[in-house]
Please model this.
Amino acid sequence: MKGRGPSKLRKSFVVLFFLCCFSFALTRAAFTLPKSDFELAFPGTEAIVNYKKYGVFVNSGTEKYAYKILDKEGLKKAAGEGIYPNTSIFSDPIFRKFKTDRKNKINPWDYVDSGSAQNDFYAWAQASEFDKGVKLFYVGEALRKAGLIKEALKAYYAVVVHFPRSVIWAQDGSFYWYVAPEAIARIRKICATYPELGIQLQGALAEVEKNPKNNPKLDKVRTWPGKFVSANWSRKNTGPSEVTKTSSGKKVKVVKYDNRFWKLLVDGKPFVVKGVTYSCTTVGESPHAFTLRPWMRLDDNRNGKNDGMFDSWVDQNKNNRKDRSESVIGDAVLLENMGANAIRVYHNVDERGNYNPGEYDKELMRTLNKEHGIYFIMGDFLGAYTVGSNANWEAGTDYTDSGQREQMLGVLKDMVMDHKDEPYVLMWLLGNENQHPHTHTNANEHPKEYAEFVNEAAKMIHALDPDHPVAVCNLNASGLMELAKYAPDVDIYGANVYSGAYSMGSVWHLVKFYYDKPLLFTEMGCDAYRKDRGVDEDAQAKYLIANWKDIKLNMAGSLGEGNAIGGVVFEWMDEWWKSSKGNSWGDPDDHNTQADVPSGMPDSWIHEEWLGIFGQGNGSQSHFLREPRKVYEAIRKAWAGD
Model:
């Protein structure tokens, strides 16, 4: 045979040899993977489906991407039970019993986290009335929870291959999210969590450009399905190497290494943010009634000390009174004992819309930093909730309005000048989910103008204070591509993420791919209430610890993306003013159990008034009582283990 390249026969042999080795590696890895809760009746003939055997990929990387099946029967056999297009579940005798026992009445949403991964699998695998991509995603979730890791990989990847445009709508219809990016994130995490599999997904990306009309039919979705390749994780360069980029500043800065890993440095030493969104809110007070007092100014017992930080006590037996054995300890000590090294705060404005320095007690902040090792993430809403912009509440902040922009920059400048030389400053934080409609801005309608304004604000801060980095705070990866284009002067990408316990979603990879900035989770949390079970401290603790494990997996020196620099838990204690009822707000004297916002919580809803690491009991001893939840000790152990 002539020519330098291998013949078709040799190519076929190479592919066959690789797939055999691939299958053998996966088989060997089964001895170290979790023990599965159940076995599939029809597991499929291939551990990783070789889609090129059964069809063709067309228009990869475009909006017209598709996978065209040419051998449907062969693909069915390779995929196995529950994986599209296989329908063998209906021949599974255990499934038939499951269905008969429920008299054929099965609502899959009751089986997102029912406590039985097998039941969850059966409920979703038979859900023919659902979007096929959504169905496959939850099949993957059930298989993963059951310990059927290889089968879960197949389910997640089938989402990407077949249904990259599938979306899940929030139960109240207010927003939607795409399952393909999250499926890719699950795959990437599984491969890094179980390096003994010896595989990784290479080149996969589901790129979504959302339209401002909240209509997925108008979105631009470009898909690269990628492929599974062998990977020797033990040989990966996981440690930081040569520094290639650094932000300015002697006190706090971020550094990038030649392997694209990032770290945050404080006084030249690595610093992992173990933060808390802190407030000390008195039951009965509400910002909506303009009765909520700044926590730094609370001294109701008039002893000259801050009530929350120095006069709180833990109600260990939860009897709503301070027993003799329950001494005053203070939140400063509780935070330090938990391992917290940062708290996130935002300023408000006075009645004229100007920066109000009276909210802060600098001496208190200095004490917390010097004696308890607590730094402050200094937040400016940048027009969210119309704070700083002087905009009409209903109209919201307009980032195309030069007058409002000038007003916001003035407020921001005053804050920076007030604190920039203080030892407690860790970083500056711009905005808070400004792309979300509930923040009353037009950032979603004008993402370019908003991103340009963020960059203008970041440049101003750097000129005023070269010693501290600037972060932006977004919801998940919303507006990420615009920031990547128009906000190069931002140092840190901050994301509020509530996408589920197992994985913080696709944000890790998307930020690294598009923006290449260090990533700080500016909010992560789980409420302690479930609409189907009531108070569930175990679920809350499990959720937060899983989030922290995901952060650790993506720090420099780990097997993930290497861009994580920490996270901020939301929040310190329950606040009773947060639940809304239609267009009105709930009673701040009532601990409302209403399900407020659809999310990735254990019951798919956030109960806004139950997000605290501590509860406030029946409210009679507010704001001094701290009712401990299991999540406090869980976080303490997790943070101590780093």
Summary: The first helix runs from residue 8 to 29.
